[in-house]
Amino acid sequence: MHRRGGVSSFALTAADTPASSPLDDFLGGIFGDDKKGNDKSDGGDEKAGGAPGSGAGETESLDEMSLSSFQEVLDKRQDEAGKDDEAAAEDEAREFDGYALRDAIYEKWGECFDVDFQRVDSYALISRLARFFWRRAYGFRNVYLNILPFRLGGRRFRHQTEMDYLCHLQAVVEILVKYNQLDYVLVQLEETTKKPRAGTSPLIAVPLRLDLTPEQVDKILG
After folding, report:
1. Cis omega before residue 52 (within 30°)?
2. Is the pTM of this model over 0.85?
3. pLDDT, mean over the chain
4. Other beta carbons less than 10 A from residue 182's beta carbon
């Protein structure tokens, strides 16, 4: 601060200059090159005296470049987000695999039961011909993951070795992860009070419903 004739005057120094905000830094990182281009263009106009009408055309061109750069940044971030989602799904599949599904089944019932997907069609009864005919309601198919009453080491167990069984469970887990159904199935597995039973007629399996669209059902069932 300097005093001249009793009047205080303030000299603005670099330290007094307001700091840029985070938004300014973000926009500067995206449009920094364009801003420098503007400065150079302005400087050139000042030296040359500035041709009439040239500034407006250059400004429009720079605005188009800025919008294009901003769109490229958005597209890049969306691509990165999609890759992150795929990586997360792969990580989930690695964390919960066929071994983990086998352990979850064993902890629930004390046996390593077989599992398989099953299609269940929805049907509605035609009232006037109820004794003779059935028709499909809405043409929609549901898919369940059934816990079958066939245990590892049992006579009717279809897998020849435990490794074959684990490979089958791994394939099941990968399908559940692909269609975002793993957590939904595990919650049902934990909460169900039913148990697979082989000594009944018909056999009793424990159905775990999958929440899928018709298109996803067709892909799973082929």
Report:
1. no
2. no
3. 74
4. 21
